[in-house]
């Protein structure tokens, strides 16, 4: 990276300042960078760690309208989310797919009429819904009742979507780069100040400590849990808007039930918990809502949260879940807009976009709140607010119908793409072929390349993860560390041994200078 006194320029800027400096490499930051770059703006995005390191990889991994948000009269948010669900299913069919959710009826939680009304609204708030609508279930005859403990006779089923959340972030970053954006991971904003109608910002490579000065017409604060810190401490901007941090935690246990369906379970405290098929062999259970008053960053699930989630599931299923069953857990801090709600579960999941110009100075847009389902629409709204300051953003919106990298699956959709990869590389076993297409879509063939055997795929790191896949992730997806690769790119963290992970770590250390250069 450049020295501290050097001013960074992109070719698109043609010697002048950047149009946008985006701070934050989560779903909102990468979504805005993609949309803006596609409209012709020069964009630099900086992320202090890896893409999707924090909140955006710690979700319940749902593309959904938010059924329970209807209880808080969030009709606009639910309608927008349901419409976005349809769009995202179209533009990223390799990493987003439909899922059926089973909602057991328990009279102690919510009355049946309320559930029926909510599900009716859920099916009809958004036009042109393509997923199967809600229907009633008799657990005495329907297979969805088999895993349940027999005390529940009926329930409902409705549709939503599942997403590989961290891969959605990476694909947006890849498409932003394809449209000319500069994406810099392991790069943090040190400080920013307004100088002669522009933002002048110092950014720092967190690996070697080198710094550079960049100039931009607009600063976009997509810092997520750090939005207030970026606003007040690094940019020295006062604001009356605040973010409310809420920790959400999940556990993963060996598979609790057969079938592709998920379960949405009502608790006596009126909260809901999901039990979702995960990585073929497991069940994902979450989430909690715990107010978080400490600094954002790496967070872990507490013993109390583990007990809460285990009890929530054991209340419904024949097979009880105990803390000893937990094979993995993760937690993240959600940056919700502070609407003064007393209950963390009732805090709005809607977003607020705040533009600060301090008179008539260089604008700064800060994002408070939001959810992964509505990131694309949030980006459109953000650019609408910035159009008066950047005429280039007045170009038509384009992201609603343009597939994300790998999403052009071709004839036969996902299954057709799997069949074509299997024909191209018959040496791949069926599970590996399926996983490569599920992760990379039509780009899976780029990983296989001219390989004619598994030996040609290079060193193996367990579960079918090969050196070729690792090199692809380093070259095209900003992966640098073992954690990046196993948990946020390949999704192989649960499928490899500690020995496998150690060999991958050794492999990466042996070529780390190349990895850092490729990701810059």
UniProtKB/TrEMBL annotation:
<dbReference type="Pfam" id="PF16901">
    <property type="entry name" value="DAO_C"/>
</dbReference>
<keyword id="KW-0285">Flavoprotein</keyword>
<dbReference type="GO" id="GO:0046168">
    <property type="term" value="P:glycerol-3-phosphate catabolic process"/>
</dbReference>
<feature type="domain" description="FAD dependent oxidoreductase">
    <location>
        <begin position="19"/>
        <end position="341"/>
    </location>
</feature>
<keyword id="KW-0560">Oxidoreductase</keyword>
<feature type="domain" description="Alpha-glycerophosphate oxidase C-terminal">
    <location>
        <begin position="399"/>
        <end position="498"/>
    </location>
</feature>
<dbReference type="InterPro" id="IPR006076">
    <property type="entry name" value="FAD-dep_OxRdtase"/>
</dbReference>
<comment type="similarity">
    <text>Belongs to the FAD-dependent glycerol-3-phosphate dehydrogenase family.</text>
</comment>
<dbReference type="InterPro" id="IPR000447">
    <property type="entry name" value="G3P_DH_FAD-dep"/>
</dbReference>
<dbReference type="InterPro" id="IPR038299">
    <property type="entry name" value="DAO_C_sf"/>
</dbReference>
<dbReference type="GO" id="GO:0004368">
    <property type="term" value="F:glycerol-3-phosphate dehydrogenase (quinone) activity"/>
</dbReference>
<dbReference type="GO" id="GO:0009331">
    <property type="term" value="C:glycerol-3-phosphate dehydrogenase (FAD) complex"/>
</dbReference>
<dbReference type="Pfam" id="PF01266">
    <property type="entry name" value="DAO"/>
</dbReference>
<protein>
    <recommendedName>
        <fullName>Glycerol-3-phosphate dehydrogenase</fullName>
        <ecNumber>1.1.5.3</ecNumber>
    </recommendedName>
</protein>
<dbReference type="InterPro" id="IPR031656">
    <property type="entry name" value="DAO_C"/>
</dbReference>
<keyword id="KW-0274">FAD</keyword>
<dbReference type="InterPro" id="IPR036188">
    <property type="entry name" value="FAD/NAD-bd_sf"/>
</dbReference>
